[in-house]
Amino acid sequence: MARTNGTRATLDAVAAAAGVSKATVSKVLNGRPGVSGETRERVREAMRRVGYTPTTGPRDPAPAGTVQVVFDTLTNPYALHVLGGVLAGADELGAEVVTSVLRPDGGARVRPPGPAWLEQLSARGRAGLILVTSELTAEEIAACHRLGLGLVVVDPLNPLDESLVSVGATNWAGGVQATEHLLSLGHRRIGYASGQDRSVPARERLHGYREALESAGVRPDPELVRFEAFDPDAGRRMTEALLDLAEPPTAVFAGSDSIAMGVLAAARGRGLRVPGDLSVVGFDDTFGTLWTDPPLTTVHQPLRDMGRVALRTTLQLARGETPDSHHVQLATRLLVRGSTGPPRRR
After folding, report:
1. Does the pTM exceed 0.70?
2. E-assigned strands of 102-207?
């Protein structure tokens, strides 16, 4: 219904044509978050139909906006690397970042996200949400879509809806790389110690570990696989249990560098030499791996790039754009240092 009487179209006319409130039209016009991509496009189409022109000129594209980044915990180097990438991406794109933590001291979760909390984020003008190593419910995912919040998950703990956008690394390939390296050194009793068994990355690394063993003709031994948590204390406990086996492993593939720190501590406590008596491989390549004794062989995953990609993709979703990929996996590579060597002859 284009104008024919020469009068200027108003926001009220756009709202009526789009079937939304005037406040929603204002959000779209000023590039503010809190509007779904479908509604945003409907409002823009209504602007074209009624011939609406902003008095100060077109105001799209929208400003980058503010992104909320939610960590399960910040008590590990992994999270700090990812956060560094998010902040770098925000600086490049002119966005702002607000962080929050579900488990501030690494203990019990103090505040589940929940739809009500997500509504608060939308009311505060957040453009989107990045959730790192945490769980999401179907209700929370639906709330983000309803509120128009761009949502990206990094290394989720639980399997997610295929429509949800995720960013991670090639965990399966990393598991293969770590295990093949130990096999090439002559190890056949290789333990796997990782975080929660419900963690998607932990399971993907396990599958890579099993694939490498089976390809080498080594039958995977369930006794050599342990799951607990991505932290040094858990790494120490899992290693103690592995070393107590009647036939202990000669090498341990740790599901994270934090776990590997615990593996090294357990080996020292038993008077074992690394790598003479026990070889250790980590996963992440966080700061500090060069300063362990000996320096840690580890699988590098590009954590900063993962954070940068998550930030950029969240802003794309907030603008109603289709992301380049719904499941981004960045390449891993093995970094061989001093913590791995051939097994000691028995």
Report:
1. yes
2. 126-132, 150-154, 165-169, 190-194
| Tens of pLDDT, residues 107-118 | 655 555 688 888
What pLDDT, on the 0 to 100 scale, is given for residue 10?
84
Residue 22 resides in a domain: yes
Q: Are 43 and 18 in contact (CB under 8 A)?
A: yes
Q: How many domains, the chain?
A: 3
Residue type, 98: V
On whether both 129 and 208 belong to a single domain, the answer is no
- Give Cα 141 to chain centroid, integer Å: 16
Place of tokens 């179907």: 138
Q: Which domain, by its residues, includes 188?
A: 171-302
Same domain, 231 and 278: yes
How far apart are alpha carbons 118 and 141 in whole angstroms?
10
- Rounded to whole angstroms, how far apart are CA atoms 295 and 315? 38
Question: Collapsing DSSP states into helix, strand and coil, what is residue 281?
Answer: strand
CA distance 298 to 295: 9
Cα dihedral: 128, 131, 136, 139 (round 10): -10
Inter-residue contact 154 to 131 (CB < 8 Å)? yes
Answer whether residue 128 shows pLDDT above 50: yes
- 169/171 Cα distance (integer angstroms): 5
Tell me, what amino acid is at 123?
A: A
115 φ/ψ angles, rounded to the nearest 5 degrees: -60, -40
82 with 226, same domain: the answer is: no
Same domain, 148 and 190: no
Return the CATH number at 214: 3.40.50.2300
Residue 68, classed as helix, strand or coil, is strand
Gap between the Cα atoms of 151 and 167, Å rounded: 11
Is residue 323 a contact partner of residue 340, using CB atoms and an 8 Å limit? no
In a domain, 245, yes or no: yes
Q: Which two tokens stand for residue 254?
A: 């740790």
Q: Which two tokens stand for residue 225?
A: 């696989």
Residue 26 lies in a domain: yes
Let me know if residue 92 belongs to a domain. Answer: yes
Q: How far, in Å, CA of 227 to CA of 202, rounded? A: 9
Same domain, 180 and 152: no
